[in-house]
């Protein structure tokens, strides 16, 4: 690693073409994965990611140069290149850069760093998970159990004198299985992600139960029937159905979408954009969640950001550049997968705040509708979509049967006006990855049970 | 690249315990320029080298590093030690100079293209092209209010070097242009995005890109509703590509062997209509991507996966081909779908996997359909198709076609069914055909427009 004085020289070189802000982002990351396919341990792969990015701003123009040549000369070359690529008439400003160490504790405390754990212990977790999945009582045609851990150390220094570090550790199991019943087969994958070290696997029941439920769910899904096509009330269960908020209004509230006029929320700050029951928050500082970090990837401490409060639009998610474009401060939302990406405003832990409505009444008051227990993933834009991983048809106020093959889509700003119930009991979720302009970042999205008064549901079945 | 010489030396004198070893080096040098409002808004420049290592004694182990200064012998040893815990009885099969790609087999066209690729990319030419594209799009339609035109130049170099004497490299340039626009039409905001690629900056067809963007806007004006049901359908090229970005897995030799695809056991059977064929190839004139060899060094072969409806072949790497006692097809790759981690496992991935085009244009397909729905865009590659069952439910939008002509647009749709039924319902494919890159620039898929006798659409 280059010295602090050398970092200052790199930043000054980057600024020599007239930029008004320069940042160096260093990433040193170790990943380990162990693959087990069809009960055969395929071995271990170690991954060492090691690189840096130079981020240069001049007003709202950005330059990002990244490399894995981390020698002083390599970084000076990159800084020189960044400086030359800046198309500006501004004269360079020769400010003295003095680093000031910023100390922010990562809310996710790690007890057992992955590299301190013998491989045999990790293999034991894989074997136990595999055995649990196979004991679920269904015919498994194919089963892969993969173990991953990551240990990312980042350092952000910039021309304003910031010097900030963070360390993010995660552990994860990924199951992929094909279950068959003689005539049909169904494939699914599922993750058991934790923002911790190996202590994530301290309670055996957690991952054992996950594995059994994963297989049971695939088998149940094979007995599901197609939903009819109609417009009905839809109830979304507490927990991971919060993905709907991530897709319907989280992405459109990121400064990247707002600054390019690519969102229905442009120009609506202070206006009513959703049902009064809707309060949406993004908070990267909540301990124990997958989207949590001490600082964002621009060195700004993570914070709680209220986006919509009682239906009124309160704010956008801003990174440094997005903030400049919108004339707003950073909200600690500048995130990236790693040094190969410039930062962009991204969500962290996004949730619908708890309301006052009764969970049971949301279903019992419906003659015919859909109950979504789990969402598998989704897609965003002015129109968003989410795939229903586990859904049930509601008939006369009760869950009648499981439905399959459903994707729900709507215009986000229209749908959030039709929320007519929000329950009292909020539940978090394990989390996952969100893929967007600055790569894959860890996120969670969750909610209490919630109901949309009417939504188009489309399947191949008869009503 | 000094580090390569270190690995070359290490291959000749492997550390104790290691019987054979291989490295695959992937270097990506990129320049990306984004222009908006007539000025350069963003510039990304990068030069990153990734080293994938495998080493075998009695077992095979793997390692990955981006630290070019690491001692080659130490990295090989780390890979070897990682393999010791494996309970696999087999070690990986490495290519020899006889079975690996031979650079002398490149045809003249590729040879000359390869020589051109040795020249450094001119960044000011990339800026110029992005400025031109932004200007063309902005002036093409007065309803367009915001434009971001991005032009990217990638120089991608691949090297496979192993202890059996294989030492091959290939470099190619890929140019890529993408436009994101927002238009204001009758009080409504409409977004459109489109992209193209080519092996030459000059040959990027900006006119085609502008036309596609303008059509995309037109197809979204004043959307109406649709009554759910089965309709005759034409799927646009981009929808075919969206499907293929996941559906190629049906033809993975590895997935076929482990039984995780809906086509398990059906090799040799008819799985589609006679108008439906799929081919995987190392080169296509419509894209700058070229895959002369895979990450194991195996030459990339053209493979007919579905021939007039008959499921004829699979894509293979060294492992999957050995399981079925077949030859590898140059389809060893690492990036399947999103994983959240650096993809290091050698799996099967496509090269340029395409649905074969037909003889008539998309316009002719629409006219022949008469009344039906033209599905113009679809979304969500990752969650909408189940490869194990073939079931799909894909969010999309489209245009009602009446007497072969556009009637009105419809949004918030989903198309659903099973891929095998969809393949069987293909009446005709168009002659206008596009290819797009996929994950981490590691492979491409292509599709013409596809006319189907029927498809369930929900609105």
Summarize the structure.
Chain A has 463 residues and is of the alpha+beta class. Chain A has 9 helices and 22 strands. Chain A has 2 domains: 4-222, 2-Layer Sandwich (PmbA/TldD fold); 230-457, no CATH class.
Question: What's the topology here?
Answer:
The complex is a heterodimer of chains A (463) and B (459).
Chain A: H1 4-15, E1 21-37, E2 40-58, E3 61-67, H2 72-85, E4 100-102, H3 119-134, E5 139-158, E6 162-180, E7 185-194, H4 204-222, E8 225-226, E9 230-236, H5 243-250, H6 255-259, E10 280-283, E11 304-309, E12 312-313, H7 320-326, E13 334-335, E14 344-345, E15 349-352, H8 359-364, E16 368-379, E17 383-395, E18 398-404, E19 406-411, H9 412-415, E20 419-427, E21 432-436, E22 439-457
Parallel strand pairs in A: 4-6, 8-18, 9-16, 15-22
Antiparallel strand pairs in A: 1-2, 1-5, 2-3, 5-6, 6-7, 9-22, 10-11, 10-15, 11-12, 13-14, 16-17, 17-18, 17-19, 20-22, 21-22
Helix pairs in contact in A: 1-2, 3-4
Chain B: H1 2-12, E1 20-36, E2 39-56, E3 60-65, H2 72-83, H3 108-116, H4 123-140, E4 144-162, E5 167-185, E6 188-198, H5 206-218, E7 229-235, H6 237-247, H7 253-258, E8 278-281, E9 303-307, E10 310-311, H8 318-323, E11 332-333, E12 347-348, E13 352-355, H9 362-369, E14 372-378, E15 391-402, E16 405-418, H10 419-424, E17 426-437, E18 444-458
Parallel strand pairs in B: 7-14, 13-18
Antiparallel strand pairs in B: 1-2, 1-4, 2-3, 4-5, 5-6, 7-18, 8-9, 8-13, 9-10, 11-12, 14-15, 15-16, 16-18, 17-18
Q: Can you walk through the features of this model?
A:
The complex is a heterodimer of chains A (about 475) and B (about 450). Chain A has helices spanning about 5-15, 70-85, 120-135, 205-220, 245-250, 255-260, 320-325, 360-365, 410-415, and strands at about 20-35, 40-60, 60-65, 100, 140-160, 160-180, 185-195, 225, 230-235, 280-285, 305-310, 310-315, 335, 345, 350, 370-380, 385-395, 400-405, 405-410, 420-425, 430-435, 440-455. By secondary structure, chain A is an alpha+beta fold. Chain A has two domains: about 5-220, PmbA/TldD superfamily (PmbA/TldD fold, 2-Layer Sandwich), CATH 3.30.2290.10; about 230-455, no CATH class. The model of chain A has no long low-confidence stretch (mean pLDDT about 95). A six-stranded antiparallel sheet of chain B has the order 3-2-1-4-5-6. Chain B has a five-stranded mixed β-barrel with strand order 7-14-15-16-18. Chain B has about 450 residues and is α+β, with helices and mostly antiparallel strands. Chain B is built from ten helices and 18 strands. In chain B, helix 4 packs parallel to helix 5. In chain B, a hairpin with a 2-residue loop joins strand 5 and strand 6 (about 190-200). The mean pLDDT of chain B is about 90. Helix content of chain B is about 20%, strand content about 40%. Classes of the chains: A alpha+beta (about 475), B alpha+beta (about 450). At the A-B interface, strand 1, strand 2, strand 3, helix 2 and helix 3 of A face strand 2, strand 3, helix 2, strand 4 and strand 15 of B.
């Amino acid at each position: 690693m280059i010295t602090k004085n050398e970092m200052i020289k790199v930043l000054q070189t980057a600024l020599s073409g007239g930029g008004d802000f320069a940042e160096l982002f260093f990433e040193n990351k170790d990943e380990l994965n162990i693959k087990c396919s069809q009960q055969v341990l395929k071995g271990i792969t170690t991954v060492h990611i090691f690189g840096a990015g130079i981020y240069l701003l001049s007003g709202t123009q950005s330059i990002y140069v990244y490399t894995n040549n981390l020698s002083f000369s390599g970084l000076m070359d990159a800084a020189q290149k960044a400086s030359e690529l800046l198309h500006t008439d501004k004269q360079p400003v020769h400010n003295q850069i003095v680093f000031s160490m910023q100390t922010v504790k990562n809310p996710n405390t790690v007890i057992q760093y992955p590299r301190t754990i013998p491989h045999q212990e990790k293999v034991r977790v894989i074997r136990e998970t595999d055995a649990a999945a196979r004991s679920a009582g269904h015919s498994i045609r194919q089963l892969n159990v993969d173990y991953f851990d990551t240990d990312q150390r980042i350092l952000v220094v910039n021309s304003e004198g910031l010097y900030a570090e963070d360390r993010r550790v995660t552990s994860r199991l990924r199951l992929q299985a094909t279950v068959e019943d003689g005539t049909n087969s169904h494939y699914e994958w599922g993750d058991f992600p934790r923002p911790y070290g190996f202590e994530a696997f301290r309670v055996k029941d957690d991952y054992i139960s996950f594995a059994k439920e994963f297989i049971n769910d695939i088998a149940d899904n094979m007995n599901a029937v197609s939903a009819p096509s109609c417009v009905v009330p839809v109830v979304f269960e507490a927990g991971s159905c919060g993905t709907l908020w991530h897709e319907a209004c989280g992405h459109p509230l990121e400064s990247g979408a707002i600054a390019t006029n690519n969102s229905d929320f442009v120009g609506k700050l202070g206006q009513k954009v959703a049902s009064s029951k809707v309060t949406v928050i993004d908070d990267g500082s909540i301990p124990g969640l997958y989207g949590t970090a001490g600082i964002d990837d621009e060195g700004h401490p993570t914070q709680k950001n209220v986006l919509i409060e009682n239906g009124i639009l309160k704010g956008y998610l801003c990174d440094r550049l997005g903030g400049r474009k919108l004339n707003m401060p950073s909200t600690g939302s500048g995130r990236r997968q790693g040094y190969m990406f410039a930062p962009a405003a991204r969500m962290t832990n996004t949730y619908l705040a708890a309301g006052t409505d009764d969970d049971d009444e949301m279903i019992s008051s419906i003659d015919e509708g859909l109950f979504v227990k789990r969402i598998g993933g989704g897609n965003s834009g002015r129109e968003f979509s989410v795939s229903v991983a586990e859904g049930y048809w509601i008939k006369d106020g009760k869950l009648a049967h499981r439905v399959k093959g459903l994707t729900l889509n709507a215009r986000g700003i229209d749908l959030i006006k039709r929320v007519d119930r929000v329950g009292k009991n909020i539940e978090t979720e394990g989390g996952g990855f969100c893929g967007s302009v600055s790569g894959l970042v860890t996120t969670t999205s969750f909610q209490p049970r919630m109901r949309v008064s009417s939504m188009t549901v489309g399947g191949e079945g008869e009503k | 690249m000094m580090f390569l010489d270190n690995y070359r030396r290490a291959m000749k004198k492997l550390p104790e315990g290691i019987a054979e070893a291989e490295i695959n080096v992937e270097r990506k040098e990129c320049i990306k320029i984004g222009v908006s409002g007539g000025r350069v808004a963003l510039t990304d420049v990068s030069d990153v080298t990734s080293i994938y290592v495998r080493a075998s004694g009695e077992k095979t182990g793997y390692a990955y590093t981006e630290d070019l200064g690491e001692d080659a012998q130490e990295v090989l040893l780390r890979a070897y030690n990682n393999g010791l815990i494996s309970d696999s009885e087999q070690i990986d099969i490495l290519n020899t100079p006889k079975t690996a790609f031979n650079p002398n087999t490149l045809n003249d066209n590729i040879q000359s293209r390869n020589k051109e690729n040795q020249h450094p990319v001119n960044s000011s030419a990339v800026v110029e092209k992005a400025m031109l594209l932004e200007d063309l799009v902005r002036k093409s339609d007065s309803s367009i209010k915001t434009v971001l035109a991005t032009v990217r130049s990638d120089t991608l170099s691949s090297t496979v070097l192993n202890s059996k004497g294989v030492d091959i490299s290939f470099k190619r340039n890929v140019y890529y242009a993408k436009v994101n626009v927002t238009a204001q039409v009758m009080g409504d905001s409409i977004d459109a995005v489109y992209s193209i690629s080519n092996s030459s900056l000059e040959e990027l067809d900006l006119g085609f890109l502008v036309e596609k963007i303008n059509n995309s806007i037109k197809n979204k004006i004043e959307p109406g509703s649709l009554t759910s049901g089965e309709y005759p359908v034409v799927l646009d090229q981009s929808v075919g590509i969206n499907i293929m970005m996941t559906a190629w897995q049906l033809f993975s030799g590895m997935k076929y062997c482990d039984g995780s695809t809906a086509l398990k056991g059906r090799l040799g059977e008819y799985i589609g209509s006679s108008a439906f064929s799929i081919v995987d190839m190392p080169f296509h004139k419509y894209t700058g991507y070229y895959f002369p060899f895979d990450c194991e060094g195996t030459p990339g072969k053209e493979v007919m996966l579905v021939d007039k409806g008959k499921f004829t072949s699979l894509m293979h790497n060294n492992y999957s081909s050995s399981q079925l006692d077949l030859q590898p097809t140059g389809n060893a790759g690492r990036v399947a779908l999103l994983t959240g981690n650096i993809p290091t496992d050698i799996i099967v991935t496509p090269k340029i996997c395409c649905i074969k085009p037909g003889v008539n244009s998309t316009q002719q397909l629409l006219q022949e359909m008469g009344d039906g729905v033209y599905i113009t865009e679809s979304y969500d590659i990752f969650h909408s198709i189940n490869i194990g069952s073939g079931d799909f439910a894909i969010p999309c939008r489209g245009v009602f076609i009446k007497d072969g002509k556009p009637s009105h647009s419809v949004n918030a749709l989903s198309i659903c069914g099973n891929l095998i039924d969809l393949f069987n319902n293909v009446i005709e494919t168009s002659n206008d055909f596009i290819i797009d890159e996929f994950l981490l620039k590691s492979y491409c898929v292509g599709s013409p427009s596809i006319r189907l006798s029927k498809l369930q659409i929900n609105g």
